[in-house]
Amino acid sequence: MLRRRGLALFATLTLFAVALAGCMPGAGRTWNGPDPVRTIPFKGLGAWWDVWDWSPTFTGGSAPQDLADVDRLAAAGVQTLYIQTATYRHPDDVLDPTLLRSIVRRAHLRNMKVVGWYLPQFLDMEVDIRRMSAITGLGVDGIGIDIEATDNPDVADRTDKLMAEVRFLRALHPDVPMAAIPVTPIIWEQLNRSWWPNFPYRELSRYMDAWMPMAYWSYRRAGSFPEWGDPYLYTAESVTRLRTLTGRPNLPVHPIGGEGTGMTVDDAARMAIAASDTGAIGGSVYDDRITPQAVYPALGFMRRAQVK
Fold it and tell me: Which CATH class name applies to 39-302?
């Protein structure tokens, strides 16, 4: 364990040495929290696609979503499409890049923004950074970093790698909007403290423009801690606790509810009310393919003006 921590520290110092040498656009810049302009892509009503939804390469040609679904989302009032661009389960740094760029262009034609997201494993920093950096070449409006993987069982080393990767990405892409997509702190700080103890909320908040907690109340209804199965309570507490843990009372938070399977109009309405009551910058449900179309009018109350 000590050897791994030492290697992680060495890698971190190496990354900083490159940045400090002036080889990156953001070298030497001070990061003090969310930027109001870079927060814009994460505002309003969103919808989520993962690689199972859209990538023919990953699904063997059976991906259910296509360009027509971009039109459907726009008609439903969705303002930002969050799309997974790669996965550690496949060697490509960007899956189906030609199709992916077509999806981005179609969304932009429909006045939607697009945020590419990736789930890093925090094992090989070079792979994580390369894949997240590749998102910026797709014409998207921002990057989302899905923070939940436990492939690296050494929590301290995992945290070191997370922060090293974020700092490197910020130095490399200083003007790109970036959002953290963590598990809700209700889980990490109360229901399952062994998942990611001592998570670096305050330090990470210096670099992120928005936070998008995965607040899936359906997991609570179907499993343990059913008292957290109320969409209003789970959403509101996720927003409030993140602001407390980061020490930023005005932290831009966009909660992600769901999962979408079996979601009712009442569920959607209660989530939207919680987002409004807490001053959230928007909201969305994971994921679009399994979300009943009937709930989108209620989710529409999470639309926001995408302005500074």
Answer: alpha beta
